[in-house]
Amino acid sequence: MVTAPKLQNTQPDYTKAIEAADKLLRDNQITKPPVPLVELATNHGYSVQIGVFPNDLLNVCGYIDINKKVIMTNASDSPNRRAFTIAHELGHLLLHEDELRFNSDLGVMLRAPLGKQELDPREKEANAFAANLLVPAKMLKPYIEEPDRVIAALFGVSEDVIRYRKLSLQKI
């Protein structure tokens, strides 16, 4: 009998997430924004699709189907939100592939209510991976003094992501 891998840590491994994002960028020789997410997914054998989700799934941003090798994003989301979803799902693929094979629900990205913090360490890792893939510290530093809206447009992300990444850089 094959058993599902156990969740090893109850705390997210942010270092693992950041290193995986950095490695993906290095391996694909990506040195400037914006990060070509669809190309990265394709390089891993996945297609990226935009779908119209039924009303009962409007709180779903997207998901990864590991068997069909598809990353699906919600058509009702903005392009910036869809980019984060693709990066998040790539994070699950690179960080949690074994678990995804046993628990496909792990690959479903739900919209968190405003002010609610994510509790699952795998989701936190996938979010950290996505933020570091989309706005790597090395790429952000030359633009750090620019207005958030300018940086966000350059990186193809929301101003919220830029503010989050600037805060995380200050903590280092």
Report the radius of gyration as a whole number of Å: 16 Å
> Would you identify the regions where 5 or more consecutive residues have pLDDT less than 50?
1-7
**SS content category:** alpha+beta
- The tally of beta strands, per DSSP, is 4
What's the SSE pattern? HHEEEHEHHHH
Strand order of the largest sheet: 1-3-2-4
The biggest beta sheet reads: 4 strands, mixed
Number of alpha- plus pi-helical segments: 7
Proportion of beta-strand residues: 5-15%
Helix coverage percent of residues? 40-55%
Through-space gap between termini? 45 Å
- The gross shape turns out to be globular
Average pLDDT level? 86
Give structural notes:
By secondary structure, the chain is of the alpha+beta class. 49% of the residues lie in helices and 11% in strands. The chain has helices spanning 14-27, 37-43, 79-102, 121-134, 137-140, 148-155, 159-171, and strands at residues 47-51, 60-65, 70-74, 108-110. The protein has a four-stranded mixed β-sheet with strand order 1-3-2-4, covered by helices on one side. Helix 1 packs parallel to helix 4 and helix 3 crosses helix 4. The longest helix has 24 residues, at 79-102. The N and C termini lie far apart (45 Å). Residues 1-7 have low confidence and may be disordered.
